[in-house]
Amino acid sequence: DWIAPDLVVGAIEKTAGKSIDLQAMARRVEARLADDAYNQGQCPDITVPDAELAPT
Predict the structure, then answer these.
(1) In sequence order, what DSSP letters do the residues of 5-53 get, joined into one string?
(2) pLDDT in tens, 42-53
(3) CB of 42 within 8 A of CB of 51?
(4) What percent of the chain has pLDDT over 90?
């Protein structure tokens, strides 16, 4: 997933048997997404005013 690659990798590592706290990772991803949602509606690396965060 392009929004939360760290969570995807964590899930794969958890499946492989590593001790990964997916709940903590999910909370960090949620916080990051919430910060993006309240950061003037734009991803910081997008410079075009009307650019969308996700393809439609």
Answers:
(1) HHHHHHHHHHHTT----HHHHHHHHHHHHHHHHTSTTS-TT--STT--S
(2) 555 555 555 455
(3) yes
(4) 32
